[in-house]
């Protein structure tokens, strides 16, 4: 998982608002394979390794369903340590009748499903980056049918016991109002474009295939979700040093983009009102 540690900038904790906390917890434990790391009255932090929170779920007061054609989360993506792990989870889904989508993206192989509130989830494994095809600064990506039997065969000797401890938050994919506006914002945070795609854009640090995905598939000019709606509350961007985080903050403030600080955590919002916590780790 060399793209999800120093010296790179990457995504880690994704925070969700849900309509029924216990229903969501049951799903994330029994279907996705998370374990509880910490629990409060209306918020639960979930982990794969027993130490790092990758996802939190919270049931706000007066919560409302997210409306279609709004900005926010398209999906968050859990990166498994190996293709064998992907084969094990695919077998688990098949044996338990869990409906999924899937895609071969050339750089990775992925499974897709939704949580009870319709929040998108990707579970994937990367192909070795030595085999990724680059055309100057752009990496080749596509969406093709997976070879399910080959993936299942790879995982034949691996028992699925929930998310492996080496699982990380591979990327987050967001619905935004305007692609160009979003691109310019995330460039200020230190990310660079690695793949243009119809109606979408993928950005990363360290020449990963993407840490951030952006799309206007909900419709260009879509309205931001309200605070009361289920879906994305915030996500963490992890910087390798105070200097790199402060450089990103300076970039934002030069463009008159608000950055707030609370309890030593810096917050900002992208142009589509997606909330970001800027963390040094």
TrEMBL record:
It holds the Pfam family Glyoxalase. Gene3D superfamilies: 2,3-Dihydroxybiphenyl 1,2-Dioxygenase, domain 1. Residues 10-126 form the VOC domain. SUPFAM superfamilies: Glyoxalase/Bleomycin resistance protein/Dihydroxybiphenyl dioxygenase (SSF54593). PANTHER family: CATECHOL-2,3-DIOXYGENASE. InterPro entries: Glyas_Bleomycin-R_OHBP_Dase, Glyas_Fos-R_dOase_dom, VOC_core. This is VOC family protein. Signal peptide: none annotated. CDD domains: VOC_BsCatE_like_C, VOC_BsCatE_like_N.
């Amino acid at each position: 998982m060399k793209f999800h540690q120093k010296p790179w900038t990457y995504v880690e904790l994704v925070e969700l608002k849900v309509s029924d906390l216990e229903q969501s917890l049951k799903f994330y434990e029994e279907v996705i394979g998370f374990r509880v790391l910490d629990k409060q009255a209306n918020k639960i932090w979930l982990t794969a390794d027993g130490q790092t929170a990758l996802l939190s779920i919270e049931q706000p007061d007066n919560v409302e369903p997210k409306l279609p054609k709004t900005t926010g989360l398209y999906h968050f993506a859990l990166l498994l340590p190996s293709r064998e792990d992907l084969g094990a989870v695919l077998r688990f889904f098949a044996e338990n009748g869990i409906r999924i989508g899937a895609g071969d993206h050339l750089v990775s192989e992925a499974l897709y499903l939704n949580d009870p509130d319709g929040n998108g989830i990707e579970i994937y494994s990367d192909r070795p980056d030595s085999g990724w095809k680059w055309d100057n600064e752009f990496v080749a990506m596509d969406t093709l049918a997976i070879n399910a039997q080959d993936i299942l065969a790879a995982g034949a000797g691996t028992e699925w016991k929930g998310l492996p401890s080496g699982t990380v938050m591979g990327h987050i994919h967001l619905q935004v109002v305007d692609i160009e506006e979003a691109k310019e914002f995330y460039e200020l945070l230190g990310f660079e474009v690695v793949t243009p795609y119809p109606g979408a854009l993928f950005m990363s640090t360290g020449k990963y295939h993407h840490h951030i995905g952006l799309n206007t598939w909900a419709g260009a000019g879509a309205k931001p979700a309200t605070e009361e709606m289920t879906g994305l509350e915030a996500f963490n961007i992890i910087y390798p040093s105070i200097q790199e985080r402060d450089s990103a903050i300076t970039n934002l403030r030069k463009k008159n983009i608000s950055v707030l600080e609370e309890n030593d955590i810096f917050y900002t919002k992208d142009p589509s009102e997606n909330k970001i916590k800027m963390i040094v780790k």
